[in-house]
Write a sequence for this structure.
């Protein structure tokens, strides 16, 4: 993360000769100073005509002679010529992160510490929980807390409320910080690539409930956690980040839960940071992560 | 691994008060000098009466006033009293390891280097392969090489020959060092806890064929390898050791195969060493590994 | 960590035949149920007569027919016979941890989250800081906060006050959770093996100030953190736990500081846990850690 | 590593606006198809006018309408305009790697296995050793073996012979695969950035002799290995790659030596590969490694 204000162009397009030249030529024609560039050519699968090209460029804001809006207007013809999916974001515009949490504190404390220290350069307009336990902690930080109980009979109403709050606070990202409820498909579909979950296993192993029990029963020698985008397909969304930790026969399920927390919060924080810095580009059901 | 000659007692029995006192009392009554002790109480599953106790003790051979045979005879009543499954091995008796290999060299070279440098204190009476490619390399090391081709029509005969050779050379352990054939169930059943495989995925993810292709398609951020005992249930035997390595979107399947080799050979060597030093005790379909 | 109440015997003594038999015989004679045992023989250095033997045994409290005090009284003759340094602690007696912090929040938030969730089974009678920034956060948790400013002219008085508070609250352990002051030698000497620090480098590399700048200048490919006991010899006390994280040329010092925080808090929490569970035994200027 | 033949341009130059545009514009003007691009801006240190820009570009050979020689000729004016240090290499031209070894086999076996399987796309014109032990093994692979004994009295002559052989076989890289001699400064100076060593510690910890003994005495919880370019300043050359492995109090120096070998061979192989693929660019006494 650079200290100067910068714009981040992230884009993908069909691969062909001259993409980098076209884009970097555009930038340099306006005396744009590039801070960081990452490029990737994903080869064509069998049966496809061409591969796909991915890029992420950070340009120092004060090096360009015009505004962000004008940058977008001027770049649009280039993007259209290259058939790009693209966006340009501004490091000065903090993303608005809505955190959903249940009764475990490790991810919540971890995210708030990173927000407090400005390690995560975000706004947290509110925390939503199906329990009321963290109200005091959250409000002490000056953050709004919404208790939205979820019960078998009220799910539709509950998730309508979650969505209403998310819209009301103009949320950019919804983070499930060990939120122990399954979001309904329509909510997942409403915000593609904008809902991030931390799953407490090294996916695709141990999908579904009680992954540490599954891991214990299987006798694996490492356990892990997976940060992924939420889709309507439970625990199957594009993986952003994963990590593991070594265990052995002396570790009970309780021990694994405890170790797992350390992995969960670290993996969630890393995955979220990649997302916030526009380092994650969708590539089918996979991700390109320009770390 | 200690330099002095020592005996290794490895045992498990129903948990109760006084097991350690009984065994260590026996050893100290004969002035046995303990080099290393590892103990583990596995708690009872629901519905079981008692947990199970596991132990591994190394005793300096020259501290005992009798032979290995006599040690076994004298310990037998203690073991029976405690309802133990047990054995005592001698660090001076090299285990006889038969290596099965196909066409990939990384595990074979790695094991022979460890044997050559005496890091693995074993005998390798022969290498068996379904291809003839490594004959020269193996024979140069003074090790017999058996080419046992496996074809759709001759499987029964081929594995009868593998078994005949293994028996003839009095093999203790069969190591599948990226042997790309599936052993028939009757062979697996014949040598429980004596056939070790290296699987090129972080099991239970990606069982079966082409795990790196599966991992690539899933977009995982780490790939791994698993060393496990072979049972009649493909890729489901007790896991001895696992490890992983980080990959990213720039890595093709070929790159993953290449990275994977480094993990495979290391994990296989570690798992095999644990087995050879009698550090691995069976516990249902899991293992206790006293590292 | 077992759920039942248990006593932990940790001890070391000159190595000889029969130590385990003597201790486990004592326990089993009283029908003591052993939950966990770890043993280690440290070989003699050249010029020493004998090696040293280390042990840690957890005994279920309700399996013994007497109190903790009586256990200690009865064990004392055994310990004297074996020339042991020893202690017995009670899992029901929470240790009192005093946290010292400066202006960085990551370790403080992390420790309070673990305390809040009862992952760390401790009492935190107070937090001491040379700055006033975390008063509100700490007090919100119902924990006393002491602001003890440290300035060039008042160091003796400041550390006298730290010591007074630590004594007043009957602290067992002092944790320097990124406390950016150097404790005076007399304070270090007063509490041997009771002051735990987290140093932001993989010691012995990069002792002293600004280790991340040193690491950046050297171009290392991994950075780390070290949890160690504080002695009068700066950054040289016995190491309890360490870990590292991969960096590369794209990482600035700021990035390294940020990555480092994740390692620091994890390593500190692990090291502290080992200490709290009496898993760390001194062995010269090194530690035996029975994980 | 791509399967198609490609040219690799690696370069660095003072940072300014338009570098990427200039270089990618040149490539696209000739219809060059870019397979892989990595770019890095190293910020200016205090007191310096400008930062430095580093790049590595792989261009498919068959996409360009001219030869490698012509590519170089045409690119030269661009490079001069940008004040570049630069080179272009051809994936079809195998680099010639001369291996120096003493009496430990792990790195030698490992490198020959990688060469044998074509994982490393190199030629090994000869192996040089100060001992004669690996002659048979090396020659069996069809590789020349030079025994060049090194004794206190003959060092100058010995290293003159090493240099003569290296020149005679037109070596590109000299790899010290646990070569237990210190190269004389004049040899180091003669081949800057072309001699690669594997040091058996996590530098800068434990420079000099017997690093595992030093690590054992210090009681560190992880040990490591470092692959670096050799300079006249012992163990201080630019670091290419490092890794570590966890140890604990049960590990003797012998165990550490054994674990260390696994790290050493992996780290050496990774560092060598980065070098061979022109992924390592010098940046003062540090390296930029475009993995």
């Amino acid at each position: 993360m650079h200290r100067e204000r910068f714009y981040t162009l992230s884009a993908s397009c069909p691969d062909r000769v001259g993409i980098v030249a076209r884009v970097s030529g555009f930038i340099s024609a306006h005396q744009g100073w590039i801070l960081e560039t990452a490029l990737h050519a994903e080869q064509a699968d069998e049966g496809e005509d061409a591969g796909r090209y991915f890029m992420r460029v950070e340009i120092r804001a004060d090096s360009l002679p015009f505004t962000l809006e004008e940058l977008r207007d001027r770049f649009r013809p280039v993007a259209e010529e290259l058939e790009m999916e693209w966006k340009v974001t501004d490091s000065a515009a903090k993303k608005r992160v809505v955190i959903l949490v249940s009764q475990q504190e490790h991810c919540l404390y971890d995210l708030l510490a990173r927000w407090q220290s400005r390690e995560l350069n975000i706004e947290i307009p509110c925390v939503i929980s199906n329990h009321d336990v963290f109200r005091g902690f959250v409000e002490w930080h000056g953050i709004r807390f919404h208790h939205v109980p979820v019960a078998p009979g009220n799910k539709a109403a509950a998730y309508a409320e979650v969505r209403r709050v998310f819209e009301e606070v103009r949320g950019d990202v919804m983070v499930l910080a060990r939120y122990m409820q399954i979001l309904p498909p329509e909510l997942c579909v409403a915000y593609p690539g904008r809902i991030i979950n931390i799953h407490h296993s090294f996916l695709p192993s141990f999908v579904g409930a009680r992954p540490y029990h599954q891991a214990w029963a299987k006798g694996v020698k490492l356990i892990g956690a997976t940060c992924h985008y939420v889709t309507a397909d439970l625990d199957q969304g594009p993986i952003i980040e994963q990590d593991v930790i070594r265990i052995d026969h002396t570790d009970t399920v309780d021990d694994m839960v405890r170790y797992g927390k350390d992995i969960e919060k670290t993996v969630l924080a890393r995955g979220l940071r990649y997302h916030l810095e526009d380092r994650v580009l969708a590539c089918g059901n996979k991700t390109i992560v320009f770390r």
In short: The radius of gyration of chain C is 21 Å. The first strand of chain C starts at residue 6 and ends at 14.
